[in-house]
Structure formats: structure tokens, C-alpha cells
Write a structure and sequence with these properties.
Blueprint lengths: L8 E5 L1 H4 L1 E10 L4 E9 L2 E2 L4 E5 L5 E5 L19 E7 L2 E9 L11 E4 L10 E4 L26 H10 L13 H6 L3 H12 L5 E3 L6 E3 L24 E7 L5 E5 L1 H13 L4 H19 L16 E6 L3 H15 L3 E5 L8 H10 L5 E3 L12 E5 L12 H12 L4 E4 L14 E5 L11 E5 L5 H6 L13 E3 L1 E2 L1
Helix pairs in contact: 6-7, 7-8
């Protein structure tokens, strides 16, 4: 009985994993429960192998496509042509389909819509219940006839022979139907898929279901988000034994407490004892301050080789103390980066060794040094760096040169950057737009402007030695902005 089905055209659905196969039945083995198809098509595309074999366990649905006798080499097993229907039949050698008027096979009972198929001589495992080949809502497929005519201006000749050599392999010459895109698209339930997507997008917990309903993953991430779960962030990572009057926080929310000047002085003293000398601190402060100043001056948008005619001008107001030496170090680095630096420093009989060594290095640059306010420019400069104030010698504010320099800075309309300003109780004669603190901030007054913090390279064990629990808040930077907590 199995031989009765040889030569029949069937469609075998093996599920979503293997897909749908179509072809001519070449053999049916009842013992091993297998069926073989020759000239198979897989999901509408011709298979590279001449024959494929399927097991009954892999077959989800099997449909018999009956063909009228004498059409393109396909022959039906029955002699009648009753209940003829128009269905899609794949062409030999071409993945496109052709619609044929075919008749049902003999010994085969069908009911279009839901049909039960009994294969003679086969066990009940081969009995499948499946729907009709084409959608019942669309009815039979519509044939789109091609226009009759000759291509390339003739029906033969060299052009026809070249076409046959290039495109005639495995193809039938008579193609009187087109591929039914509309019918195949109707097999895809777009409404159900779009509804599932909309449901997952509107879900409150921000997850989207992929695969099985139990597998849910976050729908999307920002470019700066980590997809791996991390430990909770501890925002207070710095604890000081003697907290100052103010607290600050970074852009990422880390709390940075201020310290008193006495604790800050003791921290620098311990660091110097362990090898972080004053010269190292001066160089580190000069580099970080110059980087901040270069950014304030315009950075790469202004300091380019094509813009040498608009070199920025910086006025540096310095005093005869360590803060002044920090400013001179900053001026040297700015001058090395093609910035016009004008250093104001009064003439003193005796100055600190650190100030003298920094002046020696600054004199080797193209920077200009003046000792009188009259030599400072009358027009506004691009930036004023204030290093006049000192943490301990407050009597300098009564000196004539100090008052003259402060008046000039207040009258000039350029923004002011203060380096290592004193605490709020001492007051400041020059109102700054930005202030840069070193290591840990001091409780600065409102006139200090926006506070920035500079990393001067103090190791963590030095902080621990003075009783400060410290974790670096700088991240990948050496200068970070601080906000009032």
C-alpha cells in the first residue's frame, strides 16, 4: 500500500526548527517509519541535495498535494478529476511556485478547511489533521498571467542561446505565474507579534520578554550603564576626625568633607616626611592648575596652530610665599603651551627658596615678569590667576602692593581663578569665579566662586596616618568640580 503514494507531491511541516519541506515522495518505509522526498524544497528554496528522509517523530504536519495526470511530469494516482482545486505547486528546479489545476488522489478522503488524511498501509502515527494548503479566508490563489511576448527583440539567435546558458539551468521555460507574496505574507501573524511588542514596551518594570515568557531581560541600556549587577555605592567614602564647617560632593554624588587648616597642614607635613617634598607638590599643582586654566581659555578650540594670531593672555598675581610659588609654576607651564603670561611679583630683598627656584625656571620661558602695577595691561585679559593670599601671613593684605594688585584685578573685567585660597574667616580682597583646593578642600567663603579639587599625589596611607579614612574621589581625572552639599 505504501507504493500507492510514490510520486505524490507532499508538504511536510517539521516545526519551527526544521521548517517546511515540499517534494515528490520517492519511498515510504513502514518498518522504520520514514518517508523520503526527491527534488525537495526547504521553505520555498530548492535544497542542494537530491533527496531528504524524514522520521515520523519529526513530522508535525503532512499535506498531500494531488496533481492531474500529464502535467510537467507529475502524475496523480487516481483516474478521476473530481473536486479539482487550484493550489500552489513548486516548479522543478525553480524555488518559485506555479499554480496548477489538480485533482485529489484516489484512496484519499479530504474535507477542505479541516481535512483528515489516511495513508493506506501506514500506522496511525501517519494520520495527521491539518488545515488546507491555502488560507480559507483568501480562497483559492489568484493567477497572475504573464504577458506574451518575445524578449530582447526576438525568439532565437545568439541572445536566446546566451540566456539559456546563463539562466536556463534547472529552470522551466514556461513561467505563467508569479510568486504569491501576498499569500506567503498572510502566513505571518503580524498583529499578534506587534501586540506582544507593545505589551512588553508598556510594561512597568522596564523588561521585555524574549523567547519563553519566563525569560525577561532589560529592554535597553544607556551608553554609560553597566549591564552587570554591582554592589551598592557608598557615597561617603572619606571620613575626617575634625570635619570642617562645610561639605562638598562630586558630580557622581561622592561626599567630600572639608578640613581645617591645621589638619590640612599636618597632612602635608606627614606627606613631606614620607618623600612628597615641596618641590614635587609645586610641580603637581602647577601642572593641574595649568590644565584647568587651558580648559578655561578655550582648550583645543582656541589653542591650535591655525590660531596663533589670537593667543590668550593671562595675568598672574603672585606673592612671596608658597602659594605664590605654586602660581609661578602654573605660569611656566602655560607659557610652554604658547600662552602669553604676565607675572606680577613685587621686588623683595629676600624670598623663599621655592619662589626663587620657580622664578629661575620661569625666566627661561617667553613669559613676562613685572614688579609694578603700571606695567600690567590696561585692557581686559583673558584670565587672571590670583596667588596673592597666604594662609598664615594675613598682614600682607595691608601692604600697598597687595591693595594695588587687588584693585587692578577687581577693575579688570577678566574672570579670576584663585589657587589654594585661605579659609573663609580670613577674607579675600579679590572676588574669584573659580577656586582650586589641594588634596582636601578648606571651608571657603562664598566669594571663592565655584570650588574645584586638585589631586597632588598624597598616598592613602598618609591620609590614614593623620586619622583620615580616604578613598580617591577623582576617578580618571586630576581636577574635579565640587558642589555644596
Amino acid at each position: 500500500m505504501a507504493a500507492d503514494w510514490l510520486g505524490s507531491l507532499v508538504s511536510i511541516n517539521c516545526g519551527t526548527t526544521l521548517g517546511v519541506y515540499q517534494g515528490e515522495v520517492s519511498s515510504v518505509d513502514q518498518t522504520s517509519q520514514t518517508i523520503s522526498l526527491k527534488q525537495p524544497f526547504h521553505n520555498g528554496v530548492k535544497c542542494p541535495v537530491p533527496e531528504v528522509t524524514f522520521s515520523a517523530m519529526d513530522i508535525k504536519d503532512l499535506k498531500i498535494l494531488d496533481i492531474q495526470n500529464g502535467q510537467d511530469g507529475w502524475s496523480g494516482r487516481g483516474g478521476g478529476q473530481t473536486n479539482s482545486v487550484l493550489i500552489a505547486v513548486p516548479l522543478k528546479g525553480d524555488p518559485r511556485t506555479q499554480e496548477r489545476l489538480i485533482s485529489p488522489q484516489q484512496n484519499c478522503s479530504k474535507s477542505y478547511g479541516d481535512r483528515h488524511l489516511d495513508m493506506p498501509g501506514q500506522p496511525k502515527g501517519f494520520r495527521r489533521r491539518h488545515n488546507s494548503w491555502s488560507s480559507s479566508s483568501r480562497g483559492v490563489n489568484q493567477v497572475t498571467p504573464k504577458k506574451n511576448g518575445l524578449k530582447n527583440g526576438g525568439g532565437g539567435g545568439p541572445m536566446k542561446q546566451r540566456d539559456d546558458e546563463c539562466f536556463g539551468d534547472g529552470m522551466e521555460e514556461r513561467l505563467d505565474t508569479d510568486f504569491d507574496f501576498e499569500g506567503n505574507l498572510a502566513l505571518f501573524d503580524k498583529a499578534a507579534v506587534f501586540s506582544q511588542i507593545d505589551t512588553s514596551e508598556r510594561r512597568g518594570n522596564g523588561t521585555r520578554s524574549r523567547g519563553t515568557p519566563g525569560e525577561q531581560t532589560p529592554s535597553r541600556y544607556r551608553h554609560d550603564e553597566n549591564i552587570l549587577e554591582a554592589k551598592p555605592i557608598v557615597y561617603r567614602q572619606i571620613d575626617v576626625p575634625q570635619p570642617g564647617a562645610k561639605e562638598y560632593c562630586t558630580d557622581s554624588g561622592l561626599v567630600v568633607p572639608s578640613v581645617s587648616y591645621e589638619l590640612h597642614k599636618r597632612l602635608l607635613s606627614v606627606a613631606e616626611r614620607h618623600g612628597l617634598s615641596l618641590e614635587r607638590r609645586l610641580e603637581m599643582t602647577g601642572v593641574c592648575t595649568s590644565q584647568m586654566a587651558l580648559t578655561l581659555l578655550g582648550g583645543p578650540n582656541r589653542l591650535t596652530p591655525k590660531n596663533v594670531h589670537q593667543r590668550p593672555t593671562v595675568a598672574l598675581l603672585s606673592g612671596p610665599h608658597v602659594q605664590g610659588a605654586q602660581g609661578i609654576s602654573c605660569g611656566r607651564h602655560l607659557a610652554n603651551h604658547e600662552v602669553e603670561v604676565i607675572l606680577f611679583l613685587p621686588n623683595f630683598v629676600k624670598m623663599l627658596d621655592s619662589v626663587t627656584s620657580e622664578l629661575t625656571l620661569f625666566s627661561k620661558t617667553e613669559g613676562k615678569q613685572v614688579s609694578s602695577i603700571k606695567d600690567l595691561p590696561d585692557s581686559p585679559v583673558d584670565l587672571i590667576i590670583n596667588c596673592l593670599d597666604c594662609h598664615e601671613n594675613t598682614f600682607l593684605m595691608d601692604q600697598p602692593w597687595y591693595r594695588a594688585a587687588a584693585d587692578w584685578a577687581n577693575q579688570n573685567r577678566a574672570p579670576v581663578l584663585s589657587i589654594d585660597p585661605p579659609v573663609s574667616g580670613q577674607g579675600q580682597a579679590v572676588e574669584a569665579k573659580w577656586s582650586l583646593s589641594l588634596g582636601l578642600p578648606l571651608p571657603l567663603a562664598e566669594g571663592a566662586g565655584r570650588v574645584y579639587l586638585c589631586d597632588i599625589g598624597v598616598p592613602r596611607q598618609v591620609f590614614q596616618e593623620v586619622g583620615i579614612k580616604y578613598h580617591s574621589p577623582f576617578g580618571c581625572k586630576f581636577v574635579i568640580p565640587l558642589h555644596s552639599a
